[in-house]
Each structure stands twice: as C-alpha cells, then as structure tokens.
Amino acid sequence: MKSFENEKPINDIKIGAAAYVRNLAVAEDAVIRGQFNLAKVLRAAAHSQRVMAMKISRLYPEKGDHLHLLQIILSEIQGQNEIEFFRAGQFTEVPESEELNQLVKVRERLEDIIQRAIAGLENNGDITDKDVDESIWGCHGCGYLIEGDSPDTCPLCGALSVEFEWFGPFYSSSSEHLGQLSPDKIIQTLESIPEKIESVLSGIDDEILVRKSSDDQWCVKEVIGHIIETDKAFVQRVKSILQSQGITAIPRSIPPWKLHEGKMYETKSASELVDHLEGAREESLGLIRELRSDQTPFQRNIHPATAAPLTPCNPNVSFSNHRSNFVQLQH
Questions:
Q1: Most CB atoms within 10 A, among 17, 129, 238, 267?
Q2: What is the Cα–Cα distance from 201 to 174, expressed in whole angstroms?
Q3: Residue 136 phi/psi, 5° resolution?
C-alpha cells in the first residue's frame, strides 16, 4: 500500500481539513462580535470544504496502511508542545496557563489511546475492546476523551454530559455522515449481500463459522445474525412510523450492535441463516422501494405528523455497516 505521506491527494485533504477548523474558529469569533451572517457563510464554507476533502479521500484508490496512519497520528501528537507554540509565535495574547495545561492533558490522553490502538492492531489485526473501550466520549469543550460509560461532566473543563460526542463501533448517528450511499446504490448493495454471504459460507465447516478470534469478537454466524436483526429493526420502525405510532425504541440497555445476542444465531446452520437473511432482506427492500417512490415528508426522513427527524429509519443509517460486516465475513 502507498504511504499516507507525500501524496498530492493527501495534501488536498489536509488543506480541506485545515480550512474546516479555521472557518469554524473564525465563525465562532464572528458570533461573539454579533456578525451572524458572516458566521453563517463561514460555517457553510467549512461544511463544503470538509465534504470536498472527504470526496477527494473517497476517490483516492490507495488509502494507505492503517497501522502506519496510527503511527503518524502518534508522532503528530508527540510533536506538539502547546506552551512552546504560543511562546514562539507572534501572539498578542497568550492563553492562561490553566487552558494550556488542559491542552497538554487532552493530548496526553489521546496519545495513550492511540498507543493502545497501535498495540491492538499489531497483535490482533484489529483493535479490540480490551485495547480501547467499546465507547469513547469526546468533550466538545476541550477535546478530552473518556472511555466507558457516559460521563456526567468533563474532569478537565467541567462541560456537562450534553457536550460530549459518542464514538462507538456503530455509527448510526455519525455527524460526519460516514458511508452514505445514493438510493440506487443502497438498493444494489442490499440486494447483493444475501447471495454474496451464501457464496462466502459455501463449503466452510461449521466449526469455523462459530470460531471467535477473541472473546469480545463475533463469530461468522453472529455477524449474520447482526445483519438480520438490523433489517428487522428497520422494518419495525418504518411500519410504526407509517402507522403514525412514533419510532419503536430500542431499549437503552441494548446497543444496536447487540440486538442479535441471546437469540442463538450461532446454533443455526449456514442454510438457515441465509434463509432468515433473505426473508428479512426481502421485507426491508420492499419497504425501501415503496419509500423511494412515495414522495412524502417521510421520504425525506421527516415524521409526517411531528416533523421530527427520522434518523433511525434512514436506510443509509440502518444499513451503513453492512458492507463492513460483509468484509468481516470474508476475513
């Protein structure tokens, strides 16, 4: 694979990323100064430049070696020195020592997480929950990262829980809109997956299908069970909305990626799993096709009665991980 460094597409991406941060920082200052229309334009420019940078990244065929990227991130973090940066710069106002100390602690925390991620990737081929916790919470106030349960407040800046961004292995509510597909590509992807999975499973011993690479990883059968449960949850929620009964909630104690647990998918045969998947997929595809042809507020992910966002019923949201799930099966 090519390196992440010294490539023109990567430089273009860096420019877009820098512009995104710069524009938002100046927009924030504009709001403080009461220049709300200037802030509006700067925020819109930040959005557009970030999306363009992401487009370049997607079009670039060689994404590089993931372990190498983590090592680059680590070297970037270790090369930072916030105090020396402000002392050496031409700044009319140097931040208070408390603010600089916060930046140092944020960097040290991120460095620790990246180091554990590198170790996990080197030892296991992926980062497990033993390396880095299943949930990471990022403070919008200072950038500090907390692993585990949702924090009540930030230990560094005191920000409340609502000021934290959640990062988990399931990005249904990702503000970055990762993995978004056009309606036609959603249909094509969903139609092809059952047949591809059947082909992957063909001729493989059942012993391999239930084997786990580690205690906290899924076996092949559980991955298929997860896909089936995702389809079922999507269908249930869409039907509930169409009947104007609101969104059927997933119990808070069960994360979306754990809906298959306890349903004994690992005990089913490969053919049974494919049959279950084909049945669930046929129903979900039928609903998606109806939504595509029905130009109602629901088609735009807005509840027809309450005008509330319907993110959990967006096909891009519900099936965004299925491509990566299929790659898991191939591995």
A1: 238
A2: 31
A3: -120, 135
Contact present, 147 and 168 (Cβ < 8 Å): no
- Please state, in angstroms and rounded to a whole number, the distance separating the CA atoms of residues 21 and 50: 9
Q: Please name the residues in contact with 98: beta carbons below 8 A apart, sequence gap of 6 or more.
A: none
Q: Write out the two tokens for 128.
A: 């497990």
For residue 144, pLDDT beyond 90:
yes
Whole-number Å distance between alpha carbons of 156 and 139: 9
User: Residue 112 corresponds to which amino acid?
Assistant: D
First to last CA, the chain: 18
Q: Which two tokens stand for residue 329?
A: 């099966």
Which tokens hold the place of 153?
């407040």
- Output phi, psi for 30, to 5 deg: -65, -40
Each residue's pLDDT tens digit, 289-327: 776 444 343 444 444 444 444 444 455 555 556 666 666
pLDDT digits (tens, 9 = 90+) for 44-78: 999 999 888 888 887 776 666 888 889 988 998 88
Express each pLDDT in 172-184 by its tens digit: 555 666 666 677 7
Distance of CA 215 to the CA centre of its chain: 23
Mean pLDDT within 248-258: 61
Question: Across the strands, what pairs with 145?
Answer: 138
d(CA 317, CA 311): 7
Round to whole Å and give the CA distance between 300 and 178: 18
* Tokens (6 digits) for 215: 């205690």
**Domains of the chain, CATH where assigned:** 183-330 (1.20.120.450)
Cα R_g (the chain), whole angstroms? 23
What is the chain's length?
331
Residue-wise pLDDT for 146-200, tens only, equals: 999 999 999 999 999 999 998 887 655 556 666 666 777 778 888 888 998 998 8
Distance set, CA 72 to CA 110, 198, 205, 281 (Å)? 13, 39, 40, 41
- The amino acid at 131: D
